[in-house]
Amino acid sequence: MGLAVATLFAGCTRPAAGGNSAKDYLVYVGTNVAAEQESTIFLYRLSPATGALTRISAQRGGANPTYLTMDAGRRFLYAVSETQTFKGAKGGGVSTFAVDRRTGDLALLNQQPSNGASPCYISLDHSGKVALVANYVSGTVSLLPLQPDGKLAPATATDQHEGSGPHKNQNGPHAHCIIPDPANAFAFAVDLGTDKVYVYRLNPAQGQLALMPEPAFVARPGAGPRHLTFHPNGKLAYLINELNSTVTALVYDPTAGKFRELQTLSALPAGFVGDNSCADIHVSPNGRFLYASNRGHNSIAVFAIDASSGTLTPVQDVDTQGKTPRNFALDPSGRLLLVANQNSNNVVTYRIDQQTGLLTPTGQTAEVPSPMFLQVVEDFTR
Description:
By secondary structure, this protein is mainly beta.
């Protein structure tokens, strides 16, 4: 991909990246470590000045805590157990941990079944009343109410996706992501197996998910949509497609809960030959740049977001200095990007140029067993 410089995205509702760059961050790392008796969630302190990661502690996070999320108050951390058996029953589980405000350590509060096999994604609605879970192997999505003390109540809504696609990995539904829209009116479930983004009416107060008659978006056959992320202005969204290694830019209709395709383009550089599957996708806090991870090519693809249209222009491909970048994250200021390389057991940090979006390695890395997910928050322990 050639170099280009993005223009500032007009209409962005969030402030431009900046913040207090002197304040450290905490990074919770979810892993693919299966044995429940071992430490499976790791806590690091991230220096914004150097990009260095310093291990603080190792936590008992249960089996395969491959995806995490925190509440807005940073009081509770929620983790999936990406398993097909949980407490002797078929399916996976979800755990709630209380966060120690002095140390950042985790204490298990409770667990619930995820109502499906191999949960791989969890998010909270914007009111903080419910958790939304995507179960990959079973192709189901579930809603679990959150109690005032942070504990998870049993699921009050579960939906089974149906269908398949032309790719060998699309022999059935595979729910891979579920998130609320900016207005908290809809929930969108991205299904790799059916090439669809399902849309639900979201009612957190009643603990309800109501499937709408038509999908919010249908990807190209065999694309294998994986993760969806909204632009800070709430008018655009971006979809990463695992199986055909593409990124799709979308316009969002908040009234209908549907998306219109603007553009689909490759996440890989021209001329690449070999196996690849895309994984994660994020928009910079200032709304000017999009980042996507490639597993196989082992890179982060960088795109500039056009200021007037929301379309994408490739600007850079950066080696992740490891194998199989499953997940990556930006710090809250948008000045650092961290990559979790699942199959080389390392997390690597990069500096983000605020004007061009380009990534530069900081030279800092941390050794972590099978890192899968990175939750970056401001350091509340100091």
